[in-house]
Design a protein that fits this description.
CATH class of the largest domain: Alpha Beta
Largest sheet: 8 strands, mixed
Shape: globular
Radius of gyration: 22 Å
Order of helices and strands: HHHHEEEHHEHHEHEEHHHEHH
Strand content: 15-25%
Structural class: alpha/beta
Number of domains: 2
CATH architecture of the largest domain: Alpha-Beta Complex
CATH topology of the largest domain: 2-enoyl-CoA Hydratase, Chain A, domain 1
CATH superfamily of the largest domain: 2-enoyl-CoA Hydratase, Chain A, domain 1
Length: 324
């Protein structure tokens, strides 16, 4: 059953009517009923109206609505991309200091003929898996695992692909006691020091340092309806106005959408989503993402290792200069 967001009420009503009429038409399929032709015509008319409503709605989403789409429970998450894009995937676990962290998954695999290292936040797709993956909010051991896999990629000169989808690093007491800030800083620093290409794709939420820790990349791409922000709109509203209900205002003023960040020069490209969002056609979305990531990776592979590192470092220096 499809999940609808609050601004999709009209779309939900139209698609519900289409489903009802299709059910009636199926019941009458084996009967000679003169009304069947008129039902087919009505279905086509309603499908056209639903398609237009969907297109019009998604052509004019507000920043807050984009935030809702980025968090859609049916949106394909990290492992959906890995399963579809990566062959011979071998997950690697543990940070060799404390434990494993299921919120940040990683491993080795082959991406269209290349051996690559994969890192990504996994939110889970149902209650059990969301709890297992801690809703994609990594703890220090997750970022230390990321550092370990980055060092592995550097040693064997394998490109790195990262998939960002997190509200932010886990803010629990235990995570802070084990050095959350230090772990994020070391992961970010490790990204900057590597001589292998890093290509990042923000597939949903890119929240705070928890995202940046694996997104300090040569090329940062975003899906059309994803967000990338220093803090969630709710957290920013609480900080700025002491009122989390003003999240809509925060989302608008923080410029967190892919379109805003492309204009600011923070990211390197936007990948369009199927009409209605990535969750409407995950297979098509993942294929588009794979094609764009392959193109960016191929261009980086033509550069020398030292040039790859310099390009990445200069990219983030330039962002800092341009946003002063």
């Amino acid at each position: 059953m499809r999940t609808y967001l609050d601004f999709e009420k009209k779309i939900a009503e139209l698609e519900s009517k289409v489903s009802e009429l299709k059910s009636i038409a199926a019941d009458d399929q084996n009967e000679e009923d003169a009304s069947s032709v008129s039902i087919d015509d009505e279905i086509r008319t309603l499908e056209e109206k639903a398609g237009k409503a969907l297109s019009d709605t998604y052509d004019s989403l507000t920043p807050w609505q984009k935030c809702q789409v980025a968090r859609h429970p049916d949106r394909p998450h990290c492992m959906a991309y890995v399963d579809a894009m990566i062959t011979d995937f071998v997950p690697l676990a543990g940070d060799r200091y404390y434990s494993d962290d299921d919120a940040l998954v990683g491993g080795l695999g082959r991406f269209r003929g290349r051996s690559v290292v994969i890192l990504g936040h996994e939110k889970g797709h149902d209650t059990e898996s969301r709890i297992k993956h801690n809703f994609g909010m990594a703890r220090p051991e997750g970022y230390r695992k990321a550092v370990r896999l980055m060092e592995l990629a550097e040693r064997f000169q394998m490109p790195i692909l990262t998939f960002v989808d997190t509200a932010g690093a886990f803010p629990g007491v235990g995570a802070e006691e084990r050095g959350q800030a230090e772990a994020i800083a070391r992961s970010t620093d490790k990204c900057l020091s590597l001589t292998v290409p890093i290509v990042t794709l923000v597939i949903g939420e890119g929240g705070s340092g928890g995202a940046l820790a694996i997104a300090t990349a040569n090329k940062v791409l975003m899906l059309e309806h994803s967000i990338y922000t220093v803090a969630s709109p709710e957290a920013a509203a609480s900080i700025l106005w002491h009122d989390s209900t003003r999240a809509k205002d925060a989302a608008t003023n923080m410029r967190i959408t892919a379109q805003d960040l492309d204009e600011l020069g923070v990211i390197d490209g936007i990948i369009s989503e199927p009409i209605g969002g990535a969750h409407r056609n995950p297979e098509k979305m993942i294929e588009r993402a794979a094609n764009e990531m392959e193109k960016r990776l191929a261009a980086l592979e033509e550069m020398k290792p030292a040039e790859i590192r310099h390009q990445r470092q200069q990219k983030f220096l330039d962002i800092g200069k341009s946003l002063q």
